[in-house]
Amino acid sequence: MDVVDTIDALRQARQQMKGTVGLVPTMGALHDGHLALVRQAKAENDVVIVSIFVNPTQFNPNEDLSKYPRDIPHDLELLRQEDVDLVFTPTPELIYPEGFQTWVNVEQVSQGLEGERRPGHFRGVTTVVAKLFNLTQPKRAYFGQKDAQQAVVIKRMTRDLNFPIVIRICPTVREPDGLAMSSRNVYLNPEHRAAAAVIRRALLAASSAYENGERNADDIRIVIEHVLETEPLVEVDYISIANAVTLHEIEIQTDDPLLISLVVNMGGTHLLDNILLPAAHNTIDGLTDTLGGA
Ligand code: AMP
What we know:
Helix content: 25-40%
Number of strands: 9
Radius of gyration: 19 Å
Bound molecules: adenosine monophosphate
CATH superfamily of the largest domain: HUPs
């Protein structure tokens, strides 16, 4: 496995690659959710590139950039075990050299949800992902359904800018109690960690209500709130019930596929999860194409 941290070395290694290339962009502190993307990329491509870059431009000033978990040696060990071909570990100065002033901005689908709570977040994500696409020229790139809005935004960017890249969205990998795996879960103390399982329970309660015919957004929201209220340690940031393609909030009632997203704050750590309804969809892959939307 090659590990490179300069643009020249990356381009040189890329030129020598034969066959299809799969790219998995990450911020490191790797867990089984990341490794599921790597395995999917391995299964579908001749060569796999993983990037590890804690992207400063997607953090807000009040967020956890400096204390974001980092453990490159451990990450490299995990990636070696997965037989990854190349790992790109740039510094912020390499990605954003002095004078940097060019940004990629997806205008509409990055507005609500996380975009509203974290102004500028998606501009940072799309800019770095566009740069990684240019640098690695993959045939396919892999992202997680856990960050559903990010997946929609990146699919939109890829179409709008004509990147010749297939965006693959992989299902959310969970802990045994249902908590979505996340690099940020290490911030949780044992009480918060145990209580965090309520997030998945609340989303599954929404799913059951939906399967029983409930279509009213307010009533679905009440179902979620009732489950969350059983855990006093959980503070709700937002509950979004949105059209899964446009990400427009559903006002009253709809038969369109829904993306229900939930962000809670537990002792200063924001935990994000979502569910797609009808439950037959476990990622937005396919959904966006069949609906002719994003
Ligand atoms: P991050 O390092 O948190 O930026 O995540 C890198 C990629 O892994 C993103 O595409 C995430 O959506 C994806 N990812 C993170 N956690 C999970 C998970 N639990 N299951 C599946 N994909 C995930």
